[in-house]
Amino acid sequence: MTDLWGPAGVDVTKPHHARVYDYVLGGKDNFAADRKAAEQLLAIAPDSRQLAQAQRAFLVRVVRFIAESGIRQFIDLGTGVPTSPNVHEVVRAVDPSTRVVYVDFDPMVVGHARARLATKQGVIAVERDIRRPQEILTDPEVQALIDFEQPIGVLFLAILHDVSDDQDPAGIVAQFREQMVPGSFIAIEQFASDSEPEARAQLEEVYANTPWPIAFRARDQIQRFFDGFELLPPGVVDVEQWRPEVEAKPTALKVVGGVGRKR
Predict the structure, then answer these.
(1) In which element (H, E) is residue 109 found?
(2) Labelling 16: which of 124, 190, 206, 207 has CA 20 to 30 A away?
(3) Cα–Cα distance between 186 and 262 in angstroms, integer?
């Protein structure tokens, strides 16, 4: 069996963050290049599996909190390869009528999302690029499902570190913020620059020659992404420390996150 074939528009010879993450979590929706990249990272930072699980647990806690705060419509940006529990599974446990848009630029990811996630009324997956936010906000399918005159939850989970500084990640967040009414929520999660240097260097090397090199950022820079929002306690912290339900050990790579409410 060969991994040299992939869906149209998918370069299977280069690692992709979503598929590497899928492999680290124990998934099967990945290719040889993704597995090689993941094993290189695990050799330097064996606790990366623990970190991936912590990121998933952060997603679950965050979206459940936002749903329990009354939000009934979500846009999940850079959704990645489907891994249960997914956003709609978590929020619909709070209210089965909650609407969810999954967004990703990768045709393979979107194909999986349409086949495995967008199988219920009120849940869709669209192929769009976060670097062009207006195309997401004006997408006919998105506009048909999301009422921008009502509060929404917008999830930037493990996606902004795929956006380089010259692509203006703060400006991307701001374009979504401008479309969000007061009472809306935003959640952000991304790699932090105070990661262990050797592990950080390995991850940067893995993705250096791909279309999406990793952008590590200082915590104060990440916090500025929340401008225009009330940053909720405990602020921007390691994902393991955001309202934890179980105790977790620190990892070599640092991923931080937080939640804000539109004023």
Answers:
(1) helix 107-116
(2) 124
(3) 8
